[in-house]
Amino acid sequence: MKPEQDYKVEEFMNKDIVQVTPDTNVTRCAEVMAAEHVDSVLVTVDKKIAGIVTEKDLARKVVAKSLDAGEITVKDIMTVELVIIEPEKSLYDAMILLNKKKIKHLPVIKDNVVVGIITAMDILRVQPSYMEIMANPTNK
């Protein structure tokens, strides 16, 4: 077993990226998420990331506002100020970043192209001791 600081994001990231385009309507986006059993989708244009949509976005930006999901597109609700990580970074770095930014999904980018996504749950499956990081919001 490797020392924990040697675990790299690229070893544990999900390479089967669920993607939609900015012009996908929100109903279709939710259908894709349900069919793929994921709680987020990356919004891409020519393999480059434009944003992310999470279940929280659907709940807060569509359902809570009683918007018609069939009438609005992903570009209207996606998060565009993204926090990303490179595949060669450590899982520890990823967990610190997730905790610091209070997010659960990190797109993995190499040479401006999406190569995967890693979540807090992915990391905790490998390194349960990092639960302490999630529980302590003062980590930097």
Description:
By secondary structure, this protein is of the alpha+beta class. 36% of the residues lie in helices and 20% in strands. The protein has helices spanning 9-12, 26-36, 55-63, 74-77, 91-101, 120-126, 131-135, and strands spanning 19-20, 40-45, 48-54, 105-110, 113-119. A three-stranded mixed sheet has the order 1-2-3. It has a two-stranded antiparallel ribbon with strand order 4-5. The longest helix is centred in the N-terminal third of the chain and has 11 residues, at 26-36. The model has no long low-confidence stretch (mean pLDDT 91).
Task: Explain the layout of strands and helices.
Layout (H helix, E strand, L loop, with lengths): L8 H4 L6 E2 L5 H11 L3 E6 L2 E7 H9 L10 H4 L13 H11 L3 E6 L2 E7 H7 L4 H5 L5
Parallel strand pairs: 1-2
Antiparallel strand pairs: 2-3, 4-5
